[in-house]
Design brief:
- The protein is about 30% helix and about 20% strand.
- The protein is of the alpha+beta class.
- The strands form 3 sheets. A 5-stranded antiparallel sheet has the order 4-5-8-6-7. Strands 9-10-11-12 form a 4-stranded antiparallel sheet, sandwiched between helices.
- The longest helix has 20 residues.
Length: about 350
Amino acid sequence: MMRLPQFRYHAPGTMAEAARLLADAGPGALLLAGGTDLLPNMKRRQQAPRDIISLRRVAGMQAITGNGGGLRLGAGATLTAITRDQRVFAAYPALWQALVQVATPHLRNMGTLGGNICLDTRCHYYDQNYEWRQAIDFCMKKDGETCWVAPGSKICLAVSSTDGAPALMALGASVRLVSVRGERTLPLGDFYAADGIHYLTKEKDELVSEVILPAPGGWRSAYWKLRRRGAFDFPVLSVAAAARMAGDGTVLEARVVLGAVSMRPLIAAAAGARLIGRKLTDDTIAEVAEVAARLAKPMDNTDFALHWRKKVAGAFVTYALRELRGDDVSDLRRRVAHHDLAACS
């Protein structure tokens, strides 16, 4: 049986108290929200904090409120609470689709939005118990010096596997960070760095207080996910797409984001730019899917063959754009969920 290491537990009641505790505890402290990622990591000794600061009792962190036509999602709001909010379902379908596919209902009841966007990066060589990792002389991400995915690499190549972040980035979301020094808001795309160890740009003393969604303003969105099983698994490829279109179907603005193919979610800026001023014809979709797929450079550190994962990136961009066009993709979603390989290629 794997047991948690010893730690000091803190349960602040306000954001200010949580920020002060985090600053006072120093780099040996970690924040606990739903615990669905942190606690298993601690049992495997991937993380062994001296202090745990729970955010469960922090006033206001679970709130979901309107914001001038948009929404403010408290970082402590559970994934279940967000997916049950009709405003999310109606106006931000990519986010709803992403979060409803996270893990299982039991874990969505516990897991929080803040925890999902801060999800630790993953790798076959890292997500093992202590004894297994010790047997291969550990890896760069924890206690070692070598990235076993690419031994010559100077940075860790562990993969970003958050479902929420690509969808939120496609929707133009921003994140609010709070510390004893004050607060700041930044686009969610700037929240991530291309490093499997230092994958977040937030400072050690900052905590995520909320995610801010702009008014839907006529945007359509979709999220597609590839995983081994139709439930529970992390993505090994995800695509989020959003577009604002004129009445005749001409794309006015667009965003395409790839997830689970790098150390951070990747904004396919060139693909989004190719869509502007054009209608979502089959030819346009095929062209844009090819452009977006060039960004996908998966490594051999998650499920499925990396060459196949790269190949299907274009197919999943195609599915997302077809959904934005208004195609009936319900049967295709069912086939992908049941891992029909013909649908995924």
